[in-house]
């Protein structure tokens, strides 16, 4: 009877061992499937992020290239503006009468009457009225 009991215990231990091994294997298999699914999802996300990064990098390169062009255009525009300012200053120095007209225009813009401008700047009435029309088109005519 001792042998039968020992044999029964061994069989029960073997069955329990096989059941535990099967349960552990099934749980491991389920976990492996879950991890494989997560890995696939993360790989897809990574691929999408790489594409987005590539698009962003090319957009950045384009923006940088445009920025360089704008900077060059700004520099050339600033140089042209400085040149025009220099030319305007030179013209103002060459034509003393232009200062009279500038003063007359400033007086008209500040609200002086036509008679005040005529007497102060020693200009003919027609020229003062022309200046008024140029600088105040809505009120001058």
TrEMBL record:
InterPro entries: DUF2802 (IPR021244). The chain crosses the membrane at residues 6-27. It comes from Alteromonas lipolytica. This is DUF2802 domain-containing protein. Keywords: Membrane, Transmembrane, Transmembrane helix. The keyword Transmembrane helix applies.
């Amino acid at each position: 009877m001792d042998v039968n009991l020992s044999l029964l215990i061994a069989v029960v231990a073997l069955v329990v061992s096989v059941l535990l091994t099967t349960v552990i294997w099934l749980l491991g298999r389920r976990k492996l499937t879950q991890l494989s699914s997560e890995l696939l999802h993360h790989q897809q996300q990574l691929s999408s992020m790489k594409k987005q990064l590539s698009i962003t990098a090319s957009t950045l390169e384009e923006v940088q290239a445009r920025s360089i062009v704008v900077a060059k255009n700004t520099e050339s525009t600033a140089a042209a503006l400085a040149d025009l300012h220099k030319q305007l200053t030179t013209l103002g120095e060459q034509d003393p009468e232009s200062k009279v007209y500038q003063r007359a225009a400033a007086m008209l813009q500040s609200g002086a009457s036509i008679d005040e401008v005529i007497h102060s700047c020693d200009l003919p009435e027609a020229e003062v009225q022309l200046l008024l029309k140029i600088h105040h088109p809505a009120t001058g005519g």
